């Protein structure tokens, strides 16, 4: 994970390149850096195919960056390295060796090494040194933080199943994750070396806000000494420690004593009656009563050793070699262990009120039941998507519907979503937290459902039998008339909420469930009192050439609109969409929002944009200015609500009649707005949309087709295929729209077991091609090297020749530069 890390990143990555283990992938997650981090990381990735760069389009925090890397990892093991720390040469090799040294145990999740602190200015790691380390588990760690984030190496799939790092933490996020994995029942094997470094920096997060770190550290420490409440549920293949740490420590002392004396009694039984080969039923029952946790708490090796120590104690002999000297007694003592369940829990009541992590939303990784309770998941990408949810939410809550909102900002950039969520009081779920969690929604709802991240999630959902819906929030070029790529907009979702009845025409060939729900924000604008026009006429030019659509016409359109205003003697200002990259007339660009600027304008000059509807809803006349020949037809039928002009002269003519624009168009405004952005049925847009979502949720619950194991497997396949959904072109090519124009519709709710295997097959084929290209490049470079050697030999022999020599010497620097570029 790297955020503004250019000063340390190169040394860090060189320490990775120098690893004794050569077979690795290094994923660098640039978390929205504003310095040279991206260029530095990309340069190294071009030189070494083992390095890959993922770029967050909005700064999302250390936990989110780590989670992106964890999701992108398609390897069996994963380790974390902060961008300012260093690996010693054998750091990967020794941890993997420790992990693979003994037979695999379900409770083992990874191996760890020790860490050495280095000063801020050091760029080379020290030599690794040996150090004896203990095995770590909840029993030995209790509530302490056992290691820094760069010390452990994990079995990747087990770590993913625990939900990833908590993205709501600005500090102690690793401490919380380790507390979770140890409480879930996992343990860490030791790699007996100091093999990683931790850079001491005055500006580190823990040093800049130590008390904030203390608060969470105290809560985590206290949690180890409290029983787990019923709502805590981990997705692990180990048995969680549900009781307080002290209960297990006491049970360990009891287990050691009980096991030793039970082994002595088993030995006595064998000695008194040699024909008896197994412990008596009474002895086995007694051991189950007094030491039910012996195998779990002591571990197999210590439990075995405790039983054999009892045999040795009976005979007053050394423990070493007792199995060979006393085989019958040893066999009877060891048979006692078969009576004990290694996953047994102590028979004690848990007091959930003592658990300090009471904010279940904040500690989401502990509460899978809360994740599963979410019935509807929203996937918004912009501030006005969030505001639409805010209007719909009260109607959902009134019906007891549980919903969550997923934050896609790291993929699509910060488009005001987070700020709008904070303003509305919503808590967002990070995309990684969603994908690594155990969410089982009845309905997935998106707005821009052609976006690659949404399309991948929708494809995974539909293949597993989940229902999907899309809300068209505003206007849309459904048929991509002016968009230079194929999106199949709103042809992925099973159900679509259209803004107005006019839009039904675009879905006449579709098998989707299509309803008209209106636009909540237009309802709000229509209900507001209208402002009087300004004393002096003012034209607002709405510049919104964005996302590569017709952007080649941006400057000409704006110049023509400005020229028409000047010719008509009308003052003018520009409202520029945040994603419009134009730079003309900066002195005329307003700083206020489009709504505020429209409220004080006399007329709004528009191209294809939702501003047409918004301005009319606010009682402001519109002129649709189309000199560049937009082909999308949504606003080509104005129904008398506004004029359409295609030349500067025609726009000038309309502006000279600015006082009459309202009178001419206003009678048609209600009918036009009803056709384009009003719900059917007479209710408001928010209430209507909420009712449709609830109905679709109920229908999905009644159908009951969703396969949750397939759902999670599909999501993982999408992640592996597309580097955590950041290789967007791959998703669009591999996950086509579900209801494409002219194509046969799929069977609603049918499961598709081939979704994940198809993606994995495409990924593997791409990997083979990439390897072949690298081999071909290597052969080319080898041939180039041989040619270069022969030319260099000829040069050395002939550079002193009287005629050829001076020419060769003059050409040599040019040749060297050319060869250097070729080699690079």
Can you give a write-up of this model?
- It is built from 32 helices and 19 strands.
- The strands form four sheets. Strands 10-9-8-11-12-13-14 form a seven-stranded parallel sheet, with helices on both faces. Strands 3-6-4-7-5 form a five-stranded mixed sheet.
In short:
This protein has 824 residues and is of the alpha/beta class.
Question: How is this fold's topology laid out?
Answer:
Elements: H1 6-17, E1 26-31, H2 37-47, E2 51-56, H3 62-72, E3 77-79, H4 91-100, E4 108-118, E5 129-130, H5 138-141, E6 152-155, H6 156-161, H7 173-183, E7 187-199, H8 205-208, H9 210-224, H10 245-272, H11 281-290, H12 294-315, H13 322-325, H14 327-335, H15 368-373, E8 376-379, H16 383-398, E9 403-407, H17 409-412, H18 417-424, E10 428-430, H19 431-436, E11 443-446, H20 452-463, E12 467-471, E13 495-498, E14 513-516, H21 520-527, E15 538-543, H22 554-568, E16 571-576, H23 594-599, E17 603-606, H24 611-617, E18 622-625, E19 644-645, H25 648-656, H26 658-665, H27 669-677, H28 685-703, H29 708-721, H30 728-734, H31 755-798, H32 804-823
Parallel strand pairs: 1-2, 4-7, 8-9, 8-11, 9-10, 11-12, 12-13, 13-14, 15-16, 15-17, 17-18, 18-19
Antiparallel strand pairs: 3-6, 4-6, 5-7
Helix pairs in contact: 1-2, 7-9, 10-11, 10-12, 10-14, 12-14, 16-18, 16-28, 20-29, 20-30, 21-24, 22-25, 29-31, 31-32
Label this structure with key terms.
seven-stranded parallel beta sheet; alpha/beta; 824 residues; five-stranded mixed beta sheet; globular; 19 strands
Major beta sheet, specifics? 7 strands, parallel
**How many angstroms separate the termini?**
27 Å
Low-pLDDT parts are none
Instruction: Give the helix proportion (percent range).
Output: 40-55%
Beta strands, count:
19
Derived from helix and strand composition plus strand pairing, the structural class reads alpha/beta
Silhouette = globular
The residue-averaged pLDDT reads 88
Strand content: 5-15%
* Cα-based radius of gyration, to the nearest Å: 34 Å
Strand order of the largest sheet: 10-9-8-11-12-13-14
**Helical element count?**
32
